[in-house]
Design goal:
Butyryl-CoA Dehydrogenase, subunit A, domain 2, alpha+beta, 12% strand, two-stranded antiparallel ribbon, 579 residues, 54% helix
Length: 579
């Protein structure tokens, strides 16, 4: 039998052409729990526009760009060093979509992007980004670094640097746009940034930089925020300064560095990552020269939050792919979606996806408030950002893997999106600090700043606002579990350094589950009050049992699987489902 002769029930269902926003009823409801009502209404048509693009035009471009990664052109035909990155047209078009059409790197800095009055709130920006990233993960690294570079310059840069670079870093005119990269990692240190060997020297009144950087994502960028140690400065992170290193100097000549090669990567193939070698490159000091690492931490934290959002987006796309496939395929005389074990796997993917989005929007809301001057929310952001980076990125690996498994052999074939989702999910756990690094950063935020007290206080306050009868019952169970997590977290902070470090990853698993359990309960209570049913409270209960209380899976109640279709489609679930 040839391919053309295959019967219709052997078709291969695809998500291509779907609107990724309208296909996700959970997003609008979740956004309503964290954004002002007027902002939600203003965001809806924009979300629909991004969703339409992500499910069609962007999805097609992303597949092409992944198959045709950029290449490094080191010299021109006359033998002159140029270090030019040559992109496939599909990636260039994706850049136009991300930077210009939707203005993701500009919307936190400029008024009027996408017609928004004033600057777009972080919580709305992350919701829009969440939809976009479901089709293209790699491009959001350049977008995030350009966005955060403008933020760092506005916070710490001199008036001259701000005037020269911020307007172009935040431009939606693709011809005027400057993109940014970040240069931290060196072979000598890896995650130990304090071991960096790049040196900065004053030469004829300007700073020059020598040394190498082992990883530069968005290689070939117009500007780079780089750490280097001024000659004579002390060892460790305290001796590092931050420098803005432009690609082209004011006179039009190339700056003094080379891109040695581009990395062959498992994931994010559409976006170039390269090795840099500085040969006396001109750099402009950003902020206090002895505060470089602390200032770079602001850029890292925004990038980490973006990473957590991207992991949530990968989980959502994985769930969508699995649901569409399971509903469109049959085995043993039944649709895959009706098979009990498949339903159990999809149900767990729903829990992962909705929890991941909840904690991202919660952090984005806190970032909006912190930028507005709230010291309380600044502490919440400080601890929840590495926690999101740890937990969402870790869980995305399982979720994307399960979606591949549900699709079967086609899921392993590069013509389908699953392989790319899985590859990108593994990168998310490494970018901006591997799991061990960010888990220990959670502990540091608690020990240095008492940030955990702000976080637990915030969660308790939110649980106290739950009002529905079913919500109060779930809230009481969640409050008890939250109290247990707090006691164990604080006990671990007081343990020996070796014990604390050895157990901190497991503690972060439990802490993230506690945060998400609270958020899902509060979201569920809100939906119940609004007459939207009890589906989110059902999700909250099962998430608490499975992830926070670690109930034995063999003791679980499989009757909850009957509500899978309602949860996926956003249809009401009755209160009786929780009895």
């Amino acid at each position: 039998m040839t391919t053309l002769d295959l019967p219709s029930n052997r078709a291969m269902p695809s998500t291509r052409g779907m609107n990724f926003f309208t296909a996700d009823p959970n997003l609008e409801r979740a956004l309503g729990a964290y954004a002002e009502p007027a902002n939600v209404e203003r965001a809806l048509p924009l979300l629909e526009e991004v969703g339409r693009c992500a499910g069609d035009e962007l999805d097609e471009l992303a597949a092409v760009a992944d198959a045709h990664p950029p290449v490094l052109r080191t010299h021109d035909r006359l033998g002159r060093r140029v270090d030019e990155i040559v992109y496939h047209p599909a990636f260039v078009e994706m850049q136009r979509l991300g930077f210009s059409r939707f203005g993701f790197a500009a919307m936190s800095h400029r008024a009027g992007v996408l017609g928004w009055p004033g600057r777009v709130p972080h919580v709305v920006k992350f919701a829009l980004s969440y939809v976009f990233v479901q089709s293209e993960f790699g491009l959001f690294c350049p977008i995030s670094m350009t966005d955060s570079a403008a933020r760092v310059l506005r916070m710490f840069g001199s008036a001259e640097l701000q005037e020269r670079y911020v307007p172009r870093l935040t431009s939606t005119d693709f011809g005027e746009l400057m993109q940014s990269a970040q240069l931290l990692t060196e072979r000598t240190g890896g995650s130990d940034v304090g071991a960096s060997e790049c040196v900065a020297r004053l030469v004829d009144g300007e700073w020059r930089i020598w040394g190498e950087k082992w990883f530069c994502s968005n290689a070939g960028a117009d500007v780079h925020l780089a750490l280097a140690r001024p000659e004579g400065a002390p060892a460790g992170t305290k001796g590092l300064g931050m420098f803005l290193v432009p690609k082209v100097l004011e006179g039009g000549e190339r700056n003094r560095y080379v891109i040695r090669r581009l990395k062959e990567k498992l994931g994010s193939r559409s976006m170039p990552t390269g090795e840099y070698e500085f040969e006396g490159a001109v750099g402009y000091v950003v902020g206090a020269i002895d505060r470089g690492f602390g200032q770079m931490a602001e850029m890292i934290n925004v990038s980490r939050l973006s990473n957590g959002m991207r992991a949530a987006a990968l989980m959502r796309r994985a769930l969508l792919e699995a649901v569409v496939h399971a509903r469109g395929r049959a085995a043993f005389g039944r649709a895959l979606f009706e098979l009990p074990l498949v339903r159990e796997q999809l149900f767990e993917m729903v829990l992962d996806s909705e929890a991941a989005l909840a904690i991202v929007l919660f952090a984005a809301q806190a970032l909006d408030r912190a930028d507005g001057g709230s010291e309380h929310d600044e502490l919440v952001v400080r601890i929840v950002t590495p926690l999101i980076k740890y937990a969402n990125c870790r869980r995305a690996r399982w979720t994307t893997g399960m979606a591949m498994n549900i699709r079967g052999g086609n899921g392993y074939i590069e013509e389908w999106v699953n392989a790319r989702l899985l590859r990108d999910a593994h990168l998310g756990s490494i970018w901006e600090g591997a799991e061990n690094v960010v888990a220990l950063d959670v502990a540091r935020a608690a020990m240095r700043n008492g940030a955990h007290e702000a976080l637990f206080g915030e969660l308790e306050e939110r649980l106290g606002a739950v009002t529905t009868e079913v919500g109060r019952g779930e809230g009481a169970a969640t409050r008890d579990a939250l109290g247990g997590v707090r006691r164990r977290f604080e006990a671990l902070l007081g343990a020996s350094e070796d014990e604390r470090e050895a157990k901190m990853a497991a503690m972060c698993d439990r802490l993230a589950a506690a945060v998400c359990s609270v958020l899902l309960t509060v979201e569920g209570d809100r939906e119940a009050r609004m007459g939207q049913g009890y589906g989110k409270l059902l999700v909250a209960r099962e998430y608490r049992r499975r992830y926070l209380e670690r109930a034995d899976p063999l003791d679980g109640d499989s009757s909850v699987l009957r509500w899978l279709g309602e949860l996926v489609d956003g249809k009401p679930v009755p209160a009786s489902a929780l009895v």
